[in-house]
Amino acid sequence: xxxxxxxxxxxxxxxxxxxxxxxxxxxxxxxxxxxxxxxxxxxxxxxxxxxxxxxxxxxxxxxxxxxxxxxxxxxxxxxxxxxxxxxxxxxxxxxxxxxxxxxxxxxxxxxxxxxxxxxxxxxxxxxxxxxxxxxxxxxxxxxxxxxxxxxxxxxxxxxxxxxxxxxxxxxxxxxxxxxxxxxxxxxxxxxxxxxxxxxxxxxxxxxxxxxxxxxxxxxxxxxxxxxxxxxxxxxxxxxxxxxxxxxxxxxxxxxxxxxxxxxxxxxxxxxxxxxxxxxxxxxxxxxxxxxxxxxxxxxxxxxxxxxxxxxxxxxxxxxxxxxxxxxxxxxxxxxxxxxxxxxxxxxxxxxxxxxxxxxxxxxxxxxxxxxxxxxxxxxxxxxxxxxxxxxxxxxxxxxxxxxxxxxxxxxxxxxxxxxxxxxxxxxxxxxxxxxxxxxxxxxxxxxxxxxxxxxxxxxx
Length: 460
Known about the structure:
By secondary structure, the protein is mainly alpha-helical. The protein has 21 helices and no strands. The longest helix is centred in the middle third of the chain and has 24 residues, at 209-232.
């Protein structure tokens, strides 16, 4: 029998350099990788010998390269791809797709189109991806220090005109309305297929400068919507990728205001969901700084409200009060009759601001104020915004529990459940889970028993 030929492995110098940069020992990296893997449901049992083998050029199988990159990224406080750790072998090459803020317009188009293709194809690395708050802050820095793209016009491909941009804009508005009414579980597959089958072809077409800028602006908004829908369907790691690409598309559009909106309304809320209050405030302040003098007061109010959310989660009542007061002042300066606010911020009115402030008061344990703001929000929200009304009802019910008005809280919570039954929204379910946990100290009271039974019927 012929001997099996020996294949010489090359030392993994990229991984060695990153380990040195991170200040990790081999054993320390192994522990971090095992912990990170456990968060993904993997039982990894690497040790310092395993890391030594990787440094000699051996590559672990399956999802391990992505876990190693994520573990190093957390230690370094930035996104690390498997290319950077020297473990990009074919099928794993795409696992970093959507995580980069591309330095070129061509690169941005390639990256976002690959993200859409991968999403439609239900790639495993997307479905199982997690998110680190530090990976949200890095693109915000790139956006903050990067100037507008000098040119976006293209001369190759099918001609794209203003009517094509109008069609994407109208489709986006229709999808937003459906999402408000029924939740993202019903609508997100349509959005992703539309992006992949129609919008990708438009980005690859030919267009003059003005049409190109408008196209990028419109696609940025639809991409951000797809990211929000990923949050609402329980996929925060996928949402992160969409938000980064929406930020990059806004840069190509030359729209600093919308880029700031992506930071403050999208990325900061994702950081809130992940329990990273410091990053919430950082992202909101980056939005304020990056769009200073380029947005209307309504947008300023939204950015300041996002900052207040971060301070409240950190327990800083004074800083919350200052940011909230400035948000209220900015909204008061809004001239509702002018009608010149961009479409992406037109929805942010007194009801939306009240909703944001209700969250702040809840997180600071200010039950009376939380209840008042939640009621203000509900009074101003139309019936068509079913998901936001359901969340508002849960906020109101939570404030009632904080005031030990348990029977009233269960009644309000039941109204929220009835509304959530008409939606497919993971975000709404998470609010309801939080409310249930707050009811736990009162679990033996009749009203709570009845509410729990109602939930069991709803879940059946």
